[in-house]
Amino acid sequence: MFHKKINEVGNPLVYVFLSLMVGCIYYGINEELMGLAIFIVASFFICMFYYCGFSFSCIMSIFFIIGVLINYSYYKVPSEINDEVRITKVSSFGIQGEFEGKSITIKTNRKDLKVGEKYKVAGKINRIQDKVSGVVGEVEPKFIVKTNDDLITKLYNVKRNIYYRLEENLGERKAGLISSIAFGYSDYLDAEDKDDMNNLGIIHSISVSGLHVVIIYGFFRIFLGSKLGIILTGAYVIFTGSSYSSIRAFVMLACVEGAGILKRNKSSISTLCFSAIILVVYQPYCIFNISFQLSYVATLGIIMYNKKLNEKLYKMPGKLRESLSLALSAQVFTLPFLILIFKNFSVNFIVGNLFLAPFVDLMVITGNILVITYIWPKVFDFCSYLNLYIIKAFDWTLDIIDKVSLPMFYGNEYIVLFYFFIMLSFYFVRKGYRSFIYIPLISILAIAIQIYSPILNISYYNEGAILISYRGERVLMANKNQIDIKKLSEAAFATEYYREEKLIRIKDIGSIKSQGKNYILETPEKKYLLKMTSTENESKEYDIINFKDAPINRIFVISGKVV
């Protein structure tokens, strides 16, 4: 293995992507978690050296360095800006824009800035960076002046105008639904529709995903052929906002069709990695983006397991078998991500994909016909009412399913750990190592000890809550009204939960009391300020545990001291 030749390594694009990814991860976490960053890089190259040989590992180290340099270049910004900025996001949390391909936040109280439009912005750039969302700095603008519309701005305006015309014909809720499903304009999507889709496991349907791109390409290919179909599908990806999943699907389609035209072999895994390489070079921070992660792990699951599941379900009718195997294979790797990040998982995804996804597929086509007929008002109105009846059928089916649907399943990192050990056990048992069948049972024992918590530990949740675990008691505390504390308590396996509770006593240890939005942990040895917000002043009376801004999400208390 150590002396494997370069040409003996299969699927080199997989290793190129992994090397770039590790470079991005190293740069992203190095400042706050240097030890972990070094460990990840060292482990990766030790495995690479063992399985792929020295020569190949040296080549991949070049791509690792390229990954680091791409990030360095992206996050390098001047101290001032005097340039055009396109607004990419307007929300209650602030305004984001893009200049020179880099994302910035704009510190302004102006309410007239619109997504998609370009403005001349001048001001100081503060190096306040967020490497998860790719924000390179915060601008304090001296002035913001609107500039002339370009093609991208005009495309945004077309989507906005289509929505307004749909609103006149169908009403706000239905216009928001069809605009979001068909071409990714989700500014007016109803919150109840979002919840319904989430509960039925088809939340991906209400934003432009890889599935939408495949449907659009299939439609174009039937009537216009593969070459023109690819070109028009690329235009659709640009029109809808170029989400990660749509770019991924388009690049994969282009590679597969290109390989067919050139009579070359096409590897699904290599094609998937090639699309990921393009995205990482284009936006290096995408590695940390949940949409990117879910899109790729879902596609990986489909590539690895869809065909196998299809064969296992051979007794079912063809269309039902294909839909079911596709839905199940997509969930193999997305399930742990969904539980770990969103703390919930819909067990209704099979019903949702079988009975609602066909309506969504139809709306992708009929909704985009609205774009084509936009310049002919009477034809547009006719197509609007066609969509109206599709939505009525969709709502009728949704109401029936909702009456028999199961509640959301809530979980946490322990469920993910157990799932991982089941998958690990399954893999090794299939390889002939029968003793690995006991791994899930051993993991249950380890998880039970963790949940029981013989040592006091306090966990921080990004929603703004803490979980106190000690000897079987798990108490969740929150000082924010907007938190769904009941849902969070179910995900955390909490035995009790409190909102704005002033004092919690911990047997034989001490107490935790609220101080504004923060908490004070008091032990016989010391007092600690558990910092939950960035805005409140710190006190010299306490040792500071910065949950909010530091990479800390759990502490242990041993002999009255935090470790």
Which percent band covers the strand fraction?
15-25%
Principal-axes shape call: globular
In total, the number of domains comes to 5
Runs in which pLDDT lies below 50 for 5 or more consecutive residues are none
Sheet with the most strands, sense and barrel status: 6 strands, mixed
Taking all Cα atoms into account, the compactness measure Rg is 26 Å
How many DSSP-defined strands?
A: 18
| Classification by helices and strands | alpha+beta
Treating each run of at least 4 consecutive H or I residues as one helix, how many helices? Answer: 18
Q: In angstroms, what separates the terminal alpha carbons?
A: 42 Å
Mean pLDDT, all residues: 84
Strand order of the largest sheet: 11-10-9-8-17-18
Helix content: 40-55%
What does this entry look like structurally?
The chain has 563 residues and is α+β, with helices and mostly antiparallel strands. The chain has five domains: 6-75; 80-148, OB fold (Dihydrolipoamide Acetyltransferase, E2P) (Beta Barrel); 155-409, no CATH class; 413-449, no CATH class; 453-562, no CATH class. It has 18 helices and 18 strands. It has helices spanning 12-29, 34-52, 54-75, 151-170, 172-183, 191-199, 210-224, 226-239, 244-262, 268-282, 290-312, 318-342, 349-355, 357-372, 377-404, 413-430, 439-452, 485-491; strands spanning 80-91, 94-99, 102-106, 118-126, 135-146, 344-345, 409-410, 456-461, 465-470, 473-478, 496-499, 503-506, 510-515, 518-522, 527-531, 543-546, 554-558, 561-562. Strands 11-10-9-8-17-18 form a six-stranded mixed sheet, with helices on one face. Helix 7 (210-224) packs parallel to helix 9 (244-262) and helix 16 runs antiparallel to helix 17. The two termini are 42 Å apart.
